[in-house]
Write a structure and sequence with these properties.
369 residues; alpha/beta
Length: 369
């Protein structure tokens, strides 16, 4: 099943293999996508669907050095190079829209302001990646530092961020993307609103589960109205506990979120399973509950092998499978998986920042057979 075509609303995908979003920190000054990024994504266009690295919807939404944005004309133009290159190779691509919330640093914010969050809570030990001494992305010279203390958003500011998401979705379509994915996972802003331990608000955006889901509902509705729900996906990570974000009752919370997204009619939910050593395992019952709650496409990512992917598809938990790190070192990953060929190992030292090394210089199997 993994190598069969798949109909994602109005898009026909050539296989069920997804390249999930992976931050690589290689944008140019102004957080603009580059020709090198276009080459990188075009090399991987044999995926059924590519989802771009996290792309901030505003200056406020940035949390790391050299990550691309999609809120200026120059950024839109930069991304057009990428989407044109992917489409020329027959690929399909969504933009992941990103607001990091509290996971940022004052040096990345306009006028050195504090990052924002539902509540003014610091996540101890959660670091962000900053450039060293104003270095650009090609240097790869950066350092991890504790994120800055956030301040709580006002209601009017929340409403403005909802508008920022809608505008970013329009910008993504203008830039040639086939759709967008809301980054609602990994402890960033949307998840900060959802999770009970990061949202201590007492107004309409906090407290009850309905209130904690309100921001997700408003954002998903706004982007769906802006570009069409058939072009919208949402990423969730109900058990990952990344960036200090935790919920007291994740199954109840995230199944309720899935039902909400089903009502809005988004194209897919992309579930990020925990993929580190001794990580919490997502129970089969949880996956079955997702399938019952959401009638659209379900994508799963997280340490999947070809065998695990086929099993998930056969058992009906998933419709598409994301392969993250393997795509970094194997631009021709679908070919390698289909023909049971060995995989290149990624150069971890080149994950964030730098040039072509460890980015666009990996060999392809067709050159080796």
């Amino acid at each position: 099943m993994l190598f069969e075509n798949y109909q994602l609303k109005e898009l026909e995908l050539k296989n069920r293999i997804v390249m999930p979003p992976m931050t690589r920190s290689r944008s140019a000054k102004g957080e603009i996508a580059t020709d090198l990024m276009a080459e990188y994504y075009a090399q991987r266009a044999s995926a059924g669907l590519i989802i771009s690295e996290g792309t901030q919807i505003s200056r406020q939404g940035q949390g790391y050095a050299w990550t691309p944005g999609i809120f200026t004309a120059d950024q839109i133009a930069g991304w057009k190079k990428v989407t044109n290159a992917v489409h020329e190779k027959g690929g399909k691509m969504f933009a992941q829209l990103w607001h990091v919330g509290r996971v940022s640093h004052t040096s990345l914010q306009e006028n050195g302001q504090a990052p924002v969050s539902p509540s003014a809570i610091l996540a101890e030990g959660v670091s962000v990646f900053l450039a060293k001494d104003g270095k650009d992305s090609s240097s790869g010279e950066g350092e991890m530092v504790q994120h800055s203390m956030p301040r709580a958003l006002t209601v009017s500011e929340i409403q403005q961020i909802v508008k920022d998401y809608a505008q970013a979705a329009k910008n993504a379509i203008e830039a040639g993307f086939d759709g967008i994915e809301l980054h609602g996972a990994n402890g960033y802003l949307i998840e900060q609103f959802i999770d009970s331990q990061t949202n201590l608000r007492t107004d309409e955006y906090g407290g009850s589960l309905e209130n904690r889901l309100r921001f997700l509902k408003e954002v998903a509705t706004a982007v769906s109205e802006a570009i069409g729900a058939e072009r919208v996906g949402v990423r969730q990570a109900p058990l990952t506990t990344l960036m200090g974000a935790m919920d007291d009752n994740p199954e109840e919370t995230y199944i309720a979120a899935a039902k909400l997204l089903n009502e809005i009619g988004v194209a897919y939910i992309h579930i990020a399973e925990a993929d580190w050593e001794n990580a919490p395992v997502m129970p089969v019952s949880f996956k079955e509950a997702y399938r019952e709650a959401f009638k659209g496409t379900l994508i799963y990512s997280g340490k999947y092998t070809k065998e695990r992917a086929e099993e998930a598809l056969q058992k009906g938990w998933a419709d598409l499978i994301g392969f993250g790190r393997p795509f970094i070192a194997n631009p021709d990953l679908p070919f390698r998986l289909e023909h049971n060929l060995p995989l290149n190992e990624p150069n971890k030292a080149k994950f964030f920042g730098g040039g072509a090394a460890g980015y666009t210089d990996y060999s392809v199997a067709k050159e080796l057979v």
